[in-house]
Amino acid sequence: MIIGLAVCAVMLAGAWFARKLGMPKFNVVSAFTISWVAMIVIATVFGGLTDPIVEFTWVVILTGWASLFVGAIVGWALGKNRRPEVAAKPIVIDLRRTTRFHVLFTALLAVYLIIRFQSAWPLISAAGGWEAVLGTGANAYRSASLSLALSDSQEGLTGGFLGPLINYGTFIPGMLATYTGAVLWRGHRRLLGITPVVLSGFLGLLTLQRTSIMIVLLLFIIAVWQLRLTGVEIATTHKDSSASDSKRPRTGRFAALVATIALLGAAGSFLFVTTTARTDQSRGSGFQASIGEYVVGGIAGINTRSANAGAWPLIPADIPGHFDPSPGLGGYTFTGLWTVLQRIGFPVSTTRVNLDFTQATMFGDATVTNVVSALGEFYLDFRMPGLVILSFLLGLGGAFFQRRLIGSRRVTSIPITSFLLTFSFWSFFVAWSSDLRQLLVAVLGGLVLSWVVRARAESPGRRSPAGVANPLPQSGTAG
Predict the structure, then answer these.
(1) How do residues 67-119 score in pLDDT, each as one tens digit?
(2) Cα(361)–Cα(51) distance, integer angstroms
(3) CA distance 321 to 332
């Protein structure tokens, strides 16, 4: 416990130093620190991980954190290099145009959800219906669902391209609705803005994937906040701007607070229900057996593999009697991309979609975990050099793009910044870069988002047009 608290103190000191450098309250360092400190405290102080934590586990955690911290410092310094004349041009978002595209993107996400439901229904029926899926058949159903989704998304690489075209052509624009929804949320069209997150919740329930909905929710919340930091202005209609300036800020903030609390409550309930469904029913469905083990699973996964220090055991492949490559050389961290590259002829090695289950004792009960956190996946792929380099790059990219975004009055960097901050926060569980489609949205989504909202650059000295809502902070250190 003493070592765990000391590690937490180091991380918190680093997050404090990052704030002193001018980083916003939620940055790549604080995002990492929040989740990892919570996991370490639950695992050590509250007995979440009953197994003794070996020395190499702490080495992996501290090495990953230190590399990310140094990368963030470098990225923040490099991100300052920006031409003042570019940052000085105000940008106004056309809310009506954004709404039209948002509806289109959301409709495509709904189409994707319908397609997935049609594919999953035979599996649900075979499992005995939803009652059985949410009961004893949850894990078997989820495994079959993941296998089916993987087959559907990759079939075009060896056969026809119609299936993957529909798959990617509905999912990727559907995920862009997360960011257009963030814009609408800032424009006080909250019900329409939050719709993609709700649809993602239905998708997560359909596939019993807990991480997916939590990731989308984080992307949405972070994007809303990042949009505020950019200093953009939103052009509203006369109807939208009819409320008095004296009343709208107060009522708007209160409505946003209530909606956010309700959203987080719904997400927490979803996480509890789906986690409980996938928990051994004989152990009950209490907090420890569901949410608690979900949180500490990452550190448990690292610890179970560190019994012989850095000599982690091989991971069984999908083919019985075979093992995944060790090191994976990208197969674990970039699973989706590596799978596509291999199928089109690149000499890369792929790994199984999910890690194998390893024994661990959490909250005093013998159980299993199949996650090793993002740091564990970095190590599985490239050993200690990869742990250092990939963590450094995560910190570098997160801080660099966030500083470029702050006060820029542009929306282009919002998807990649939101992705990297979410990646950093969720690193306690998995390396989210394994999802190729979400990676594509993060890398390419900014250009589409910028075009969709039809940003209009005004001359620096020109007054903002009538009916502009949400004049936002322009300083580079707003937080």
Answers:
(1) 999 999 999 999 986 555 444 455 678 888 899 999 999 999 999 888 888 87
(2) 6
(3) 20
Q: Both tokens of residue 451?
A: 């075009």
What SS3 class is residue 75? helix
CB 391 within 8 A of CB 375: yes
How many other CB atoms sit within 10 Å of the CB of residue 165? Answer: 11
Give DSSP secondary structure letters for 446-460: HHHHHHHTT-EE--T
Q: Torsion-angle region of residue 322: left (phi > 0), alpha (psi -120 to 50) or beta?
A: beta
Strands 233-235 and 91-94, bridge-based pairing:
parallel
pLDDT per residue as tens digits for the range 345-361: 888 888 877 788 888 88
Q: Are 90 and 404 in contact (CB under 8 A)?
A: no
Q: Which residue has the tokens 């990368």?
A: 71
If we measure between CA atoms, which residue out of 255, 306, 267, 100 comes closest to residue 183?
100
Consecutive H or E run containing 361 = strand 358-362
CA distance 428 to 426: 5
The CA-atom distances, in angstroms, between 209 and each of 40, 204, 278 are 24, 5, 10
Whole-structure pTM value: 0.84
* Token output for 425: 């926060």
Which tokens belong to 185?
Answer: 């949320």
Written as one string, the DSSP assignment of 214-267 is HHHHHHHHHHHHHHHHHT-EEE--TTTT-S-TTTHHHHHHHHHHHHHHHHHHHH
Q: Which residues is 93 bridged to in the sheet?
A: 234
Q: Are strands 468-469 and 91-94 parallel, antiparallel or unpaired?
A: unpaired
List the alpha helices (DSSP H) in 278-407: 293-305, 335-343, 373-405
How many of the other CB atoms lie within 10 Å of CB of 318? 12
At which residue do the structure tokens 């190499």 appear? Answer: 56
- Tokens in use for 239? 């109807």
State how far the Cα of 269 lies from the Cα of 277, in Å rounded to an integer.
12
Q: Contact at 8 Å (CB) between 140 and 127?
A: yes
Q: Which residues of the chain have pLDDT under 70?
A: 81-91, 124, 126-164, 236-290, 455-479
CA distance from start to end of the chain: 33
**Do the Cβ atoms of 111 and 173 come closer than 8 Å?**
no
